[in-house]
Amino acid sequence: MEGLERTGHMVEYQCRSGYCGSCRVKILEGSVTYREPPLAFLGRDEILPCCCCVEGDVRLDCGLAGEDEGLSDSLLK
């Protein structure tokens, strides 16, 4: 979550602990792990940036602040 915020990406959040699911985003490429399984429901192609650990490069479906919604594919390293 901090990496997304630091790089200007738009991600909603509430609990920052994996309970509420507000930060749920689609992962397009790459993988993540969790220290503890999140309590919020996740689809197979979704992650919770507030509590996941990124494994290498990932591509997420989230945009930069002030960006058109159609341009929402972001690569994070």
Automatic annotation (TrEMBL):
Domain 2Fe-2S ferredoxin-type: 3-54
Organism encoding this protein: Neisseria gonorrhoeae (strain NCCP11945)
SUPFAM superfamilies: 2Fe-2S ferredoxin-like
Pfam family, one: Fer2
GO MF term list: 2 iron, 2 sulfur cluster binding
InterPro entries, sorted: 2Fe-2S_ferredoxin-like_sf, 2Fe-2S_ferredoxin-type, 2Fe2S_fd_BS, Beta-grasp_dom_sf
Protein name: Iron-sulphur binding protein
Signal peptide range: none
Domain of life according to the entry: Bacteria
